Amino acid sequence: MKKFISIITAVLLSLCLCVGLAACGGGEPVTPTGDVLVVYYSASGNTKKIANYIAEITGGTLFEIEPVDPYTEDDLNWRNSGSRVNNEHNDPNRNVELKTTQVENWDSYETVFIGYPIWWQEASWVVDNFVKNNDFTGKTVIPFCTSSSSGLGKSGELLAQMAGTGNWLEGRRFRSSASKSAVEEWIILP
């Protein structure tokens, strides 16, 4: 009987591990249609890497979201309670000014991938003004994020609420070390 219980326990733990690992990446495969735009903000280069993979796979156009006041390594040090990201996180009126939110030929894009690092279980607020200042009507929007440990969470849903327009899909989280093949598995071309 003990052996049987041990086997059942091992099977159940294996199933839980598989479900847990599957949930970490999240996001069903997506199929972009029409012209593709890949919008991203990258604090340390990880999101930029994934954005480049998506653009290569889909033939999409890249658009980098750039703050007027770029973040330094010290600004991004979340372990320092006085760092810029900590101060912004704690400010309910935070507003990161961007160099531009205007994308050339915006109306021509049918699918928009939007990428960001996860900060405090939400999309980096650097993308907020981009989302607020663009009309996503008629567009399929696919969020993606990078994080070593945090999942996508409700980041895409919160951005969709902020935008108020567009058909926002679930999206996906990629580890910082994700390969192009991991992105290729997620994107199914028509």
General description of the model:
- The protein is of the alpha/beta class.
- The chain has a single domain (34-186), classed as Rossmann fold (3-Layer(aba) Sandwich), CATH 3.40.50.360.
- Residues 4-24 have low confidence and may be disordered.
- Strands 1, 2, 3, 4, 5, 6 and 7 form a 7-stranded mixed β-sheet that branches.
- The protein has 6 helices and 7 strands; from the N terminus they run αβαβαββαβαββα.
- A hairpin with a 2-residue loop joins β3 (111-119) and β4 (122-123).
- The chain has helices at residues 2-25, 46-58, 84-89, 128-132, 155-163, 180-186; strands at residues 36-40, 61-64, 111-119, 122-123, 140-146, 167-168, 172-174.
Report a brief summary of the structure:
The chain is an alpha/beta fold and 190 residues long. Helix content is 34%, strand content 17%.
Bulk shape: globular
Oligomer: single chain
Mean pLDDT: 87
In CATH, the homologous superfamily goes by the name: Flavodoxin domain
Q: What percent strand? A: 15-25%
Fraction of helical residues: 25-40%
Number of strands: 7
The structural class is alpha/beta
Please mark out the parts with pLDDT under 50 across 5 or more consecutive residues, or reply none: 4-24
- Rg, rounded, reads 18 Å
Which key terms come to mind for this protein?
190 residues; alpha/beta; seven-stranded mixed β-sheet; 6 helices; 7 strands; 34% helix; globular
Question: Would you spell out the secondary-structure blueprint of this structure?
Answer:
Blueprint: H1 2-25, E1 36-40, H2 46-58, E2 61-64, H3 84-89, E3 111-119, E4 122-123, H4 128-132, E5 140-146, H5 155-163, E6 167-168, E7 172-174, H6 180-186
Parallel strand pairs: 1-2, 1-3, 3-5, 5-6, 5-7
Antiparallel strand pairs: 3-4
